[in-house]
Amino acid sequence: MSEIQSRKQDHIDIVLNRDVGFPDVTTGFEKYRFDHVALPELALDDVSLETLFLGRTLALPFLISSMTGGPDKAEQINRNLAEAAAELKIAFAVGSQRVALENEGAGGLGKTLRDLAGAIPLIANLGAAQIRGADGPDLAARAADMIGADAVFIHLNPLQEAVQTGGDTDWTGVLSAIEAIAKSGITVAVKEVGFGINGRVARQLADAGVSIIDVAGAGGTNWARVEAARVKEDDRHASIKAQVGAAFRNWGIPTAEALVEAAMVAPDATLIASGGIRDGIEAAMAIRLGATLAGQAAPALAPALQDPEKIVEHFTVLGEQLRTACFCTGSKDLAALRTARLRGLDAP
Amino acid sequence: MSEIQSRKQDHIDIVLNRDVGFPDVTTGFEKYRFDHVALPELALDDVSLETLFLGRTLALPFLISSMTGGPDKAEQINRNLAEAAAELKIAFAVGSQRVALENEGAGGLGKTLRDLAGAIPLIANLGAAQIRGADGPDLAARAADMIGADAVFIHLNPLQEAVQTGGDTDWTGVLSAIEAIAKSGITVAVKEVGFGINGRVARQLADAGVSIIDVAGAGGTNWARVEAARVKEDDRHASIKAQVGAAFRNWGIPTAEALVEAAMVAPDATLIASGGIRDGIEAAMAIRLGATLAGQAAPALAPALQDPEKIVEHFTVLGEQLRTACFCTGSKDLAALRTARLRGLDAP
Amino acid sequence: MSEIQSRKQDHIDIVLNRDVGFPDVTTGFEKYRFDHVALPELALDDVSLETLFLGRTLALPFLISSMTGGPDKAEQINRNLAEAAAELKIAFAVGSQRVALENEGAGGLGKTLRDLAGAIPLIANLGAAQIRGADGPDLAARAADMIGADAVFIHLNPLQEAVQTGGDTDWTGVLSAIEAIAKSGITVAVKEVGFGINGRVARQLADAGVSIIDVAGAGGTNWARVEAARVKEDDRHASIKAQVGAAFRNWGIPTAEALVEAAMVAPDATLIASGGIRDGIEAAMAIRLGATLAGQAAPALAPALQDPEKIVEHFTVLGEQLRTACFCTGSKDLAALRTARLRGLDAP
Amino acid sequence: MSEIQSRKQDHIDIVLNRDVGFPDVTTGFEKYRFDHVALPELALDDVSLETLFLGRTLALPFLISSMTGGPDKAEQINRNLAEAAAELKIAFAVGSQRVALENEGAGGLGKTLRDLAGAIPLIANLGAAQIRGADGPDLAARAADMIGADAVFIHLNPLQEAVQTGGDTDWTGVLSAIEAIAKSGITVAVKEVGFGINGRVARQLADAGVSIIDVAGAGGTNWARVEAARVKEDDRHASIKAQVGAAFRNWGIPTAEALVEAAMVAPDATLIASGGIRDGIEAAMAIRLGATLAGQAAPALAPALQDPEKIVEHFTVLGEQLRTACFCTGSKDLAALRTARLRGLDAP
Ligand SMILES: Cc1cc2nc3c(=O)[nH]c(=O)nc-3n(C[C@H](O)[C@H](O)[C@H](O)COP(=O)(O)O)c2cc1C
Ligand SMILES: Cc1cc2nc3c(=O)[nH]c(=O)nc-3n(C[C@H](O)[C@H](O)[C@H](O)COP(=O)(O)O)c2cc1C
Ligand SMILES: Cc1cc2nc3c(=O)[nH]c(=O)nc-3n(C[C@H](O)[C@H](O)[C@H](O)COP(=O)(O)O)c2cc1C
Ligand SMILES: Cc1cc2nc3c(=O)[nH]c(=O)nc-3n(C[C@H](O)[C@H](O)[C@H](O)COP(=O)(O)O)c2cc1C
C-alpha cells in the first residue's frame, strides 16, 4: 500500500471513529430560524424539490460530496454512491482522482462509473497542487473523461496540506492554473474541504471563469484534526505537525457565513453549501441563503460503506425533511423557499 | 381500538412520560422581567383577575387548552375538566371532536358537558383537514351544538400531520374553509398546537373573520417529537417519518414572539397565549404582551387524569401567582397589568 | 414561642442551611469590570475609606443590614453586631422591632444597644404594614428611642408578605404613612428585603421626604423562597402559598440595576446598595455607581452567631478588598473611586 | 533560604501544579477569527517570520517572558532558556534581578548569560518598588550590565504586592523613577505581570520615554491567586490577605483588549502581548492587533525545567502554528499578516 493510499484508509477510519469536528465553531445555521407558516395552502405531496444543475434535472437539490475511499474500499464506495445517486436523482462528486489517474481508473473511477450513474451530474476531482503547471488543463480533461464527468472539482485545501507530513505546500500559481482549465472549455467547480471559501477568493474564482463554487465551510469535519489524529507521536517532526494541526481545531469560516458572503460577491456563480450540514432543515436554510445544492460527505460515509439502499434511505430522509420544511414555510418549490422568511436570531 | 384512537392513547402516555419538549427553543418569556414595585398601594385581596371572554365573565383569565383523551380516558378527563372549569370560572376548550362526531358524542363530548360546565365559555374543536370542502360550516355547527359550545376552535397543525404516517397533508383551501364557517355565523377561533401562528397568518385569519387566535407557540410540547416517539423502528416508511420528525425538534415560533407579532398585526382579534406557559408570572407576561387569556394543555393533563379537585388546585396556584404578580407590579386588575413596566432583557 | 417568633427562628435556619438564592438572577455587578491601573502612584496604606453617614464618620463604607434574630438568638446576635460595628466603625441597622416594641426591648433591642454601639450610626427598623395609620410617627419615634437610633428603616416587602400565610397584604396608604413619619422630624430610611426598589418608587420616596434609600435588590437572599421553604406540605392552603412563592424564585430587580436607576432619578437621596454583595470589589462597584454605603445581611449571619471577632474579621476582609480595589484603580479615597473607569461588559 | 527565595520556589510549584488562572476572564483572543484564505498564492516555506527587535533580527517574533526561578533552579532555568533562545533566535527576558543584584549575579544572572544568549535581544528585570528614589538609574544600569542586556524591564505589579504579606505597597514616585531611567540613556521596557496595562498608563509610559510596553494582560496566570495559594491559613493576618487575593480572581484587563487600547493611544511604542497566549494563532492575532512580539512565561516553565531542546521544541511548534496562520491568511510575512482580515465575533 503506498503512503498516499494508507493515508486515505486512515482518513476513513478516523472520520468514522474519532471526534474530529470543530470544538467551538458551528456552521452558523443554528443562528437562523424559519418562520413557521401554520396555513401553508399546499399539499405536502405537491411540493417539488426539483432543481436544474449542470444542465440535468435533479429530483432533490443534493450533492454527495467528494470522498476518496482508500485502496480497499474505494471501488465499492464509488459503485454504491453512483447507484444510489442515480436512483435518488442527485448529483455525485467523486473523491480525488490523483491515484486513479496514475493507475488507470483504479478504485472504481473508470468508465463504468458513468454507466452506474446514468443521467445524473457527475463531477471529477483534483487537488490544487496537481493542476499547477502547463499540463493542468490536460490533466483535468483526463480526469473528467475517465468517468464521463460533467465538470471537474478543484479542491483547495491549503491548511490540510500544511499540517500533514509531506503535504503540498507550494500554492503559487494555483489561480492561474484554474483559469487555464476554465479557458480550455472544461466546466470548473472549486471547493474547500471544510475551512470555507471567503468572499474575496469566491470573487477571484468567478473572475477566473469558475462557474460552480462549493464553500465547504467550517462546522463539520475538521481536516486539520483528521491529519493530526494520524500522527504517530514518536516521530519528532510529525509530532510538531500534529501539535500545529491541533491548534487549528477552531479555524475556518462557518458554512452559513461563507455562503452568505459568496452569494453577495459572486451572484452569478452556482453555489453549493457543504461542511457540517446535518439535516434537511439546514439544507433548506442553505438554499434560502443562496445555494443551489446542499452537499454532504462525512454523514454519507457510513451508509456508503454498506450498500446503495442505505445511501438512498439517508438522502430520502434528508429530502423529506427538506420537503417538510418547504411545506411548513408555505413554499411549493425551491424558488418559493428562497423567499420564505428566515430570521437571524442574532439580529436585534 | 381504531388506529386514530390508539394514537390518542399513545399521545397521552408520551406527553406524561417522555421528554418531548424543544431542546433549544424556549417560549421567550424568560427574556422578559417585570419591574418590581415595592410600594404597590394595593391590598392583595382587592386585585381583580376577572375578564370577559365570549360574552361570559371569567374569575381567572385562563383557558384549559384542547386535549383529546383517547378511548379509555377521554370521558373521565372531559368530565373532570368541565367540572373544574365551572368551579374555577375559567374557559374550557375540548380536544378534537373528529371521533366524537362519528360516534355520537363519544368520550364525554355530548350534551352533558355543557351541564357540567355551567356558565363558562366552552369551545369546540376540529382539525383544519376536516373542515375543507362544502360541509365545513355544517360540521362546525354540529361540533358546537354537540356540546353547547360558544365557539369552535380550528386547529392548524401542518407539521404534526406531515410527520405522522397517514397524516392529512393536503392543506389547500383551508383558509377559505375557515372563512366559510365564520360567514355562517359561528364564532371561529383558530389555534396551532405548539409551533406558533406567525404575523402573516394571524392577519389572514383576522381578515377571514376569525375572532379568536391562540398562537400556541413553541417552547412547551413539541408534537413532531411526540409523533416521532410513537414510531416502531422496524417499519421503514415510519422510521423515515420519525427521522423527519426528530429534525423538527427545534422548529417553531416561540410563544412570546408569536404573541407580540400577532398583537401588532391583528389588533382587533382576541388573543390567547399558549404553548409552554409554566406559571402565573408567565401568564401575567402574556397578558401584558396582548393576550386576553393564557392557556395550558400538557401541565393540566396529570391533574385531569385524577379528579376535579386536582385541576382546581393546579389553576388556583396559577391564579395566585398571577394575583401576586399583579400585586407586586402595583396592578389592581388586568387592565392595569397591561400598562405595567415589563423589561425585555435582550434590549440594550 | 409565638408564631412570629418561630418564623424568625426558621428564617435563620433556612438562610444558613438551604439554597434560597435566585437561580437565574444575578446582582448585575458581574457585568462590570474596573480598569486596572498598573501605575497607581499611591501607597496602599494611604488609601482612605472614610465616609460620612448620618452625621457620623465611618472608617469603612459598610452597613450591617437589618436582621431579626428570633427568640433565642436575637439578643446575642444584636450584642455581637453592635460591638463589632463599634470596633469597625461601620453602620448597624437592627432587624424588625415589631416584637421588641410589644415586649419592651426584647432581643437585645433596648437602651444597652446604643451603649455597645458607641458613636456609630444606628438604624431602627419597622415594617411598612405596621406604620400605616395615625400612630405611625409615634411608633417610629418609639422604635428609634428604644435603641437610641439615628434613623428609622421602613422595610417594604410586599412579595414576602404575599407569599406567607397570614402575611400583611394590605399595602394601601404606606406612602402617606412614610411621609407622615418624615414630616414628624424623624430621619427616614427605606429599604426592600431583596427584590429591589425601582426608579419610580425611589422618586416617590424622595418626594415623600425619605433621605436614605437602600435598594436591597435581587441576586442575594430570595425571601419568597425562604418563606416557601418554611411550609409544611400537608396544609393545602400553605402548600398553595409555597407553590406561589417558588414561582417568584427569579423575580426582582438586580441590585446593580436598581442602584443605577435610583441614582438617576433620586440624585439627592443617600443611597445604600445591598442584596447579594459578595466582596469588597462589588462594594467598590456599588460606590462607583452611586452608593454611599454597601450593605450585607446574610453573609454576616454566620459570624454574628459566633462572636464579635468573627464579624470584625469578616468586614475587615471586605474592607481590605475595597482598599485594594481603590489602590488598583489609582483611587486615594472614595471620592476618587467614584471617578474610576468602570466598564460595562454588555456595552458594545 | 531567605523569605524572598522561598517565595520564588513556591511560585514555581504553584504555577506548575495548581489551577491559578482566571475563572471567568479570558484573554479576549477567542473573540476574534481570521478569515481563512483558500487561495494563499504562497509557498508555506517562503513565509518569513523575521522581525527586528531592539536592533537585532529575530527568526520568530517571540519573547520568553520574565521568570524568576528560586534558589535551586534559577541557574539551570536561565541557562536552558538562554541557550534555547539563542538557537531559536527569539528574545529572552530574565526574571527579577533583585536577589541577584545583592548576590553578585546569583541564579545564573551574570556575564555568562550573554555568552550563552549570543546575539539575541536580552532584557533585564527590576520591580517598580526597587527603582524608586535617586539610585534608580544606577540600579537599572547595573542590572543591565550584569547580564549584558539590551534593555531593562520594569515590572508593575501593584496588585501582586498588595495581596502578599510584606509586599511593597508604596507606589508613589514610580512614574518619575521610570522617567529618570529612560533619561539616563537606558532603553526602558515596562510590563505588568498578568493584570494588564490600560491605555492611560500606556500613554503615561510613552510620554515618560518608555520605548517598549508589554501589556501582560489577564487570561493566563493570575498572580493574586498564586500569592493567595501560598498562605498558611493559621496566620490571621496572612489569612485576611489570602481572602483579599481570592476576590481578585477575575480582576484585570484581558490581554487582547489591553493590546488594542495601547496600540491606539501609544502608536509609537513597541508593543509586546503576553498573558495567557496559548498558541501561534493567538500570537498571530496579537501581531495583527499591533504587537511586535508575543510573549509567554508559564507555558514555557515546564520545558525550561527540563532542557534547551524541550524549549526549542515548544517554541518551534508555536512558530509553525504562526507560519501556518500566515499561510492560511495569504500573508507572506508579518507585515502582510498585519493587514489580514480578522473578524471580531462580537461585532454585529
Ligand atoms: C472520508 C472523506 C474523504 C474526503 N476526500 C476528499 C477528496 O478526495 N477531495 C475533496 O475535495 N474533498 C474530500 N473530502 C471533503 C469533503 O468533500 C467535504 O468538503 C468535507 O468533508 C465537508 O463536508 P462534510 O462536513 O459534510 O463532511 C473528503 C471527506 C471525507 C469525509
Ligand atoms: C394530550 C394532548 C392532546 C392534545 N390534543 C389536541 C387536540 O385534540 N386539538 C388541539 O387543537 N390541540 C391539542 N393539543 C395541543 C394543545 O391544545 C396545545 O396547543 C399544546 O399542547 C401547547 O400547549 P402546552 O405547551 O400548554 O401543552 C393536545 C395537547 C396535549 C398535551
Ligand atoms: C436572617 C435575616 C433576617 C432579616 N430580617 C430583616 C428584617 O427584620 N428587616 C429587614 O428590613 N430586612 C431583613 N432582612 C433582609 C436584609 O436586611 C437584606 O435586605 C436582604 O437579606 C438582602 O441582603 P443580602 O443579600 O446581603 O442578605 C433579613 C435578612 C436575613 C438574612
Ligand atoms: C514562574 C514565574 C515567575 C515569574 N517571575 C516574574 C518576574 O520575576 N518578573 C516579571 O516581570 N514577571 C514575572 N512573571 C510574570 C510573567 O513575566 C508574565 O508577565 C505573566 O506570567 C503572564 O504571562 P503568561 O500568561 O504567559 O504566564 C513570572 C511568571 C512566572 C510563571
Automatic annotation (TrEMBL), chains A, B, C, D:
Assigned EC number: 5.3.3.2
GO cellular component terms listed in the entry, alphabetical order: cytoplasm
One example of a Gene Ontology biological process annotation: isoprenoid biosynthetic process
Annotated catalysed reactions: isopentenyl diphosphate = dimethylallyl diphosphate
Gene3D superfamilies in UniProt: Aldolase class I
Protein name: Isopentenyl-diphosphate delta-isomerase
CDD domains reported in the protein's UniProt record: IDI-2_FMN
Cofactor(s) required for function per UniProt: NADPH; Mg(2+); FMN
SUPFAM superfamilies in UniProt: FMN-linked oxidoreductases
Species classification: Bacteria, Pseudomonadati, Pseudomonadota, Alphaproteobacteria, Parvularculales
Complex and partners: Homooctamer. Dimer of tetramers.
Entry binding sites for substrate: R7, K8, S96, Q97, R98, Q160
Alphabetized GO MF terms: FMN binding; isopentenyl-diphosphate delta-isomerase activity; magnesium ion binding; NADPH binding
PANTHER family on file: ISOPENTENYL-DIPHOSPHATE DELTA-ISOMERASE
Residues at which FMN binds: S65, S66, M67, T68, S96, N125, K191, T221, G276, I277, R278, A297, A298
Compartments where located: Cytoplasm
Family annotation (InterPro entries): Aldolase_TIM, IPdP_isomerase
Residues annotated to bind Mg(2+): E161
Keyword match Cytoplasm: yes
Family label: Belongs to the IPP isomerase type 2 family.
Keyword set, alphabetical order: Cytoplasm, Flavoprotein, FMN, Isomerase, Isoprene biosynthesis, Magnesium, Metal-binding, NADP
Biological role stated in the UniProt entry: Involved in the biosynthesis of isoprenoids. Catalyzes the 1,3-allylic rearrangement of the homoallylic substrate isopentenyl (IPP) to its allylic isomer, dimethylallyl diphosphate (DMAPP).
